[in-house]
Amino acid sequence: MERLDQIFVTLKAWAVGQVPEPFQVIASIVLSIAPIMLVFPGIFALTTVAERKLLGRIQNRLGPNRVGPFGFLQWAADGLKTITKEDIVPRNADKVVHFLAPVVLLVSALLAYSVIPFGRNMYAIEIDAGILFFFAVGAGTELAVFMAGWSSRNKYALLGAMRAIAQMISYEMPLLLAALAVVMATGSLNPNEIVAAQEGGRGWGEIVPNWFVFTPWGFAGCILFLIAAAAESNRSPFDLPEAESEIIAGYFVEYSGMKFATFFLAEYLGLFVISSLCVVLFLGGWHAPFPFFWCAWVPSWAWFIGKLACIVLLYIWMRGTLPRLRIDQLMNFAWKFMLPMALINLVVVAVWTYTRPWNYFGAELVRWLLCVGLLLAPYLLLGRNLLRNRKWGPRTYRYAS
Amino acid sequence: MNIPGKGIVTGMAQTAKNFIGSYVSKERMTTVQYPEERVPAQEAARNFPFLVFDEDPEAGLRCVACKICEKECPPQCIYIVMKRDENAKPSKQPETFDIDVSVCMSCQICVEVCPFEAIKMDTEFEYGEFDRFGGLLLGKDRLAKSNQYYHKIHPTEAAEVDARLDEERQAKAAAEKAKAAKLAALAQKSKDADKIVANGKAEKK
User: Fold this and answer.
1) Is A55 domain-assigned?
2) What gap in Å lies between CA A207 and CA A289, rounded to an integer?
3) Is residue A398 part of a domain?
4) From the list A61, A318, A383, which residue is nearest B4 (CB)?
5) Is A321 an 8 Å CB contact of chain B?
6) Whole-angstrom Cα distance, residue A142 to residue A134?
7) Of A54, A61, A322, which is closest to B8 when you measure between CB atoms?
8) pTM over 0.80
9) CA dist., res. B32 & res. B17, Å (int)
């Protein structure tokens, strides 16, 4: 069991030991990067099929079921198709930037993986400010998206890029603030320490894991983080930048063949990595949920992948349910709801941390009620403010008449 | 009460119900697995024309090669040549009757203009061919389909057509009978006249 848990770590150590001394550093680096670059695109391939099947089921269809068993080789057919397609670059496009945009997007998505602990002792690099590194690298996606939109020389691409920038910058704030709650509670920017802080459980028989999602501020933070992450990775219902029914495909309308596939891959990799960060921050990282003996048999990386899969399935479920937002709704939601809620959440974390030493009878209940009330009241007020019935009159055109 | 987030939860529950329901009940499914399963064609379905024959697929064709449909066809996808015997005498039969279904726009004008109920719309739609020119040019042999087939695909319409044809046939038969009776009466008259004449001749003698 211990062996299975550490199998990849031992395998890597053994493989590094096989190469001559001067190359061991390079071998170690390569062996840290290669699994990430193989495993997550593999998950991406399966997710595309699973997503289509799930969406189909949600709409009472069957989804792809022709290629391979239950259609689960559809990704191979799709991959072959995109690879063999012609790569078309518009005549007026800025060719260098047009070429670089998908590369930059993919690189920034992949770089973010380096600080995520996928299992016990399983991480590419350990940085003390790992969370900071994650968000700093994640900002590269904005650049890549705008590069794609601008260099295509297409009005739809530019519109998509503008929307993407507006959306990503607006949602970066609640995303960071939601993550900051965890940083405040643990006092560390190191993902490994954040995971370590969520070990064990409480309650009778330690049945409730010590994950941050099971605290009032953690629950609110997790939901805020998930919503902001959906907007950051341009997932439906926040897929305005690529809204295929309005602006065709937004910033990658001028991309075809393998470049389009690279965009697609990078988008999903971005989704996975931000979901991984959500697992690390709120869902206890690679810790098993229960202290039962069989939970310890399942290796830590399997727990991590399981939690990641749950979040990705949740995103697919959301995509199958919620319609796309309008741009003003999107902005209102970000600035009038997400941001104040994230700021209030920080206050709640402070209250929660401050009241931790309370030690009289019923202190825990008072603490919970206080924090839940502090979150619920603004939630209801802000939410109802957003939902307030506006008067819908005939549209007036100020400039065109 | 207007609780924010209620709509989202309701929607998510609805899609979850759909998801689970799609595994449980087959009635929920909105699609069928096409090549294996098929939805039976609607009675009013129509796409390309075919030629109706009564008994024999060659001689029994109702088509008389009048070429009205050929002239009326908007995309001009019909080509007809009338059959002629060795003396170049036209017979009421088509020698060639081709429809290019790659050109046909399924407008049904040929059916509407045909005075002989000879051309009708088919429900067949799987015309996939590897040869896109020759393969989609349907000749007389592929277009000819029996009246029973017509009854099978469009029962109501076919019954109406049959009734109409029967009526016409009966009217024709009645008209023929009347004509024959008239002729017979005429013949009788002339016979009588002959008799009178003959009698007269005999008396003269």
Assistant:
1) yes
2) 8
3) no
4) A383
5) yes
6) 14
7) A322
8) no
9) 20
